[in-house]
Amino acid sequence: MSSASRDQLHAIASQCSKFRNVYRGGLQSATFPSQVTCEHCGHFTEDHRCELDLIDEILVNMDQT
């Protein structure tokens, strides 16, 4: 897995069909819709990885467009 920057994590989340916005503590975030980032996704692990392994795939697809 590549190490994505904070800006990339925002871009990736906005392109990800599996993005599931959650607020810290596991509550769904209706109050922070602008916080679309992998860091706020339910599939993003504590060790900063996507449990669905989609970060690199989405980055590659973004580079091709």
In short:
The chain is mainly alpha-helical and 65 residues long. It has 2 helices and 2 strands, in the order αββα.
Descriptive tags:
2 helices, 65 residues, single chain, mainly alpha, 29% helix, globular
Question: Tally the helices: what do you get?
Answer: 2
Q: Approximately how much helix is present in the residues?
A: 25-40%
Radius of gyration: 11 Å
| Count of the separate structural domains | 1
- Mean pLDDT over the full residue set: 83
For the secondary structure, the number of strands is: 2
Largest sheet: 2 strands, antiparallel
What form results from the Cα inertia axes?
globular
Low-pLDDT regions: 25-29
Instruction: Return the structural class.
Output: mainly alpha
Strand order of the largest sheet: 1-2
Q: Which band does the percent of strand residues land in?
A: 5-15%
User: Alpha-carbon distance between the termini?
Assistant: 21 Å
Order of helices and strands: HEEH
Can you offer a commentary on this structure?
The protein is mainly α. The chain has one domain. The protein is built from two helices and two strands, in the order αββα. It has helices at residues 6-15, 55-63, and strands at 22-23, 27-28. A two-stranded antiparallel ribbon has the order 1-2. Strand 1 (22-23) and strand 2 form a beta hairpin. Helix 1 (6-15) packs across helix 2 (55-63). The longest helix has 10 residues, at 6-15. It is globular and about 30 Å long. The model is unreliable at 25-29 (pLDDT under 50).
Give the SSE map.
Layout: H1 6-15, E1 22-23, E2 27-28, H2 55-63
Antiparallel strand pairs: 1-2
